[in-house]
Amino acid sequence: MKFSLIILLLLVLAIGLHAQTIEQIKVSNEYLWGYGTSTTLEKADNMALKDLISQISVEVKSSFQDIAKEENGQLKEVSESMVSTYSHTTLPFAERKVDEQQNSVNVIRYIPKADLKNIFEGRKSKITSYVSDALDAEQDLRIGDALRYYYAALILLRTHPDHNTISYHVPDKGERLLLTWIPNNIERNLSSLRFKIQQKEEDENSVLFTLHITVFDKPVQNIDYSYWTGDSWSQINNASDGIGSAELSTAVAKNLKELRFRIDYVNNNKARTDSELNEILNDFDVLPFRNEICVSLTSNSGKDNDECLADNEDRQVQANEKPQTANTKEQKEDSKIKEKPTPIFSQVAPDESEAYRLIMSRIMNSITSKRYSANQADFTPEGYTLYQKMITAGNARILDADIDKINYVQTGNMIQARSIPMVFSYPNNRSHFVENVVFGFSPDKKIANVSFAVSAQTANDIMQRSEEWGTPEVKTQLIQFLENYKSAFSVKDANYIESIFSENALIIVGRVLKDYKPIDGMYANLGEKIKYVRLSKQQYIENLKHAFASNEFINIQFESTNIKKVQGENIYGIQIAQNYTSSTYADKGYLFLMLDLNDPNEPKIYVRSWQPEKNPDGSIIGLTDFHF
User: Fold this and answer.
1) Up-side HSE of residue 265: CA atoms within 13 Å toward CB?
2) pTM for this entry
3) Which pLDDT belongs to residue 82?
4) CA distance 543 to 552
5) CA-CA distance, 350 to 348, in Å (whole number)?
6) Apex CA 105: angle with CA 22 and CA 11, to 5°?
7) Which of 13, 39, 359, 581 has its C-alpha lying 20 to 30 A from 372's C-alpha?
8) pLDDT exceeds 80 at position 360
9) Contact between residue 253 and residue 207 where contact means Cβ atoms under 8 Å apart
10) Strand 222-227 relative to strand 258-263: parallel, antiparallel, unpaired?
11) Smallest Cα–Cα separation from 573: which of 557, 560, 586, 561?
12) CA–CA separation, 44 and 51 (whole Å)
């Protein structure tokens, strides 16, 4: 009886709290609230949210005093603009009460004062997550990703009331105050970039410059940049494995004395994947960093970057010179980042590779002269279809046509010609991207496969694993699988993707399970974490086909790849931070593939998961979520 009375009392208290009126909330000292009245619910609600933002800004106004001075704005206006960046993410979850009258609607939006700390803690967590991602990217020489993550963290930091005191423990360096440390890191990375013209290819209409791009005297893994075309800045271009390009009309190039580049450290396109960040980037001016680089086109001019940009703003590069010596402690530490050696593949003997060399010479001459349909006899039917979809459709141009630089390796039962850098462009999109292309030969010396290479770093990390982790055959097949998987999206090969999925594959999209049929109890316990929604493998493939049909191009970039092995089994868990770009859509997220390589020639995917953000603890779905 006593227990029943306690339950009843709790229910009454709960109902009483829920039944508080608008006036009671206003006079309570437990809430921050905003009030709006209008003829429609939508307008009244927006007014209430705006008023709530104003009340929160009063609580934190003094925290933004230094930014107000920097922005030359009124303190109240600046604090409100900073707090308003939470409006479309956290504040929509503020409680709401509505009082509808005959000619008006009254709305109050309110949050417990105690919850205000949690709102800002959520943003702080995102800031430190971006810093962590930036450090990982910088270590891997993915400077494009590092700059973007550092800038995202800085922008979010400036909207946090504790921006003056938030610090981060940097490995081997200790605590660093982010408000000064992040800008210094952005500047350090920008000032360490070097652009050098490696090759120049001319025809009657255009001039294509092949660029060698380094950071800390090592090939940069990725970087986003634009260049001056004579009357405007180009669309964003992406460089890969130290290779980039710039294409100008012959008339413009004839009169240029230098090439000018701007590093894109913001990348609004990729920021669209984070709605919170995207909103802030749209609402505030870009924070300026010295991001322009100039390279002289006069071979013996001795003109350095300061002179080259005398009419603009100075920067650091002298054309074709060796990088300056780092002169600060952090620069010296970062200059010690180890460059990964060339991936260790089983090399084909020079006398055996001569036949493949002759074929590749013909293919490269055809691509250079844009006679893409030539040399069909050098392909299998399947290989030629892939070639047409990738090379012809992408209007490919070779950036380094030195036939002697091609690496011929043995991968399983296939000989590969690795890796020819090419730039791809599409008629209805001005963006260009660089990929290293791999040609795979069948035993009868026909090109049977064409794919985009994974980064040298990813390939090397796999090949240097111990023999227990995988035999050389398994390692090379794993690399080949990653390359084929990435390329299948570019050439829109739904049949290949369908072939590598197990019939009972577990397909998760955005943390929602799309097909659930446990294989030997492997993932029965995921029920505690994931909502199950049945969708057949064929339905998933049909969705892919629709995406392929509606896009002129699709390009996938792997930011980082982490691969683990199930002990005693040829089953691998592949975690990938992936950027997806197409002619109509772009996003970034985290891909997990559970791959069965018991038959290296017939890989099978048991699990494919995709999540737009990491889990709250910083993890993503992986092998530890499954039972073996």
Assistant:
1) 29
2) 0.74
3) 84
4) 16
5) 6
6) 35
7) 581
8) yes
9) yes
10) antiparallel
11) 561
12) 10
